[in-house]
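Incident log entry.

Two folding requests arrived from the same account within the same minute. Monitoring flagged them as a possible duplicate submission, but the sequences differ. Recording both here for audit purposes.

Request one:
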Amino acid sequence: MGFGSMKKSNDQKLSEIIREFADQKPYKNKLFHKKVEVAWMELFGDLTKGYLEKLKIQNKILSVYLKSPSLRIELEMNKKLILSNINKKLAPDQLEDIKFR
């Protein structure tokens, strides 16, 4: 057995262990939250910079807390498009709704 074949075997085992670890509910939820945060920042980070207080996810519903009422209204008017764009980045995981607060 050469070094190259041993490395491939170890990589496969490690990836299986990581996948099993990530599929555990507490870690799966944390990973999903992080994916949502990253997607939001990539898509809307510049727009909401200075106005975003926090993002909260519960039961696949993203709550976006903003300091600006006018920005909140503008985002609410574009809610379907925003949800669609975020879900494209999250695939196969999906959000069901967004609430602006």
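Request two (distinct sequence, not a duplicate):
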Amino acid sequence: MTDNQQYIQFGQRKILYSLTQKARKTVRIQVLPDSTVQVTAPLGLSTEDVAKTVRHKAPWIVKQLRFFEQFHPLTPPRLYRSGETHRYLGRQYRLKLHQGETSIRLVAGFFEITLPDLTPEAIEQALTDWYRQRAEVYFRRMITNALTHFGSYALPVPELKLRKMPTRWGSCTTSGTIYLHPDLIKAVGSCIEYVIVHELCHLVHRHHNRDFYGLLDRVLPDWPRRKQTLERMMA
């Protein structure tokens, strides 16, 4: 166990968590889809006081762990070789690799990738770039479509930026910029719409309060089902 690995006992269950301390005012607890628990605490706060906070939140932590555990095993590490499956807009495509001038096409259930260099690193970079280009176009079109559900609020078209985020699919800044994870393009369209509508709701209500969820319920009544589908598909 490394110095930043801690644990508490909650009934019969031992909750392991990684502890990071930095300049902040409160303790933040995150449960990730791989069932790891990350705790970020203020500088100078004793490990005993951190443990008290984690113990207080233990019922919620266990609930989150049980939720993510139902989706295991998670997607194995990618090897980027012929026959391996990769997802795009909810569908699985197998890699078919060719050596030659650079191109990527979707053909009859395959990602046909042609590159001068067929190393795993080159294939991964080419596929990452392709996903990002497709995400930029698809997300912008879906934002425009989703804005029609917010007519009475007269929302401006937000600035869109793509950013890989370790624990979320989207975020919204106070200035109105929406950040979306480029890997979200691998999810089915209805799940992408859920994330986008969620972030657009933040342009009206900043916090996850009753007003926020009331608006989300009105715009996208089946959002809980879409959220669960996203978490299951992209675990």
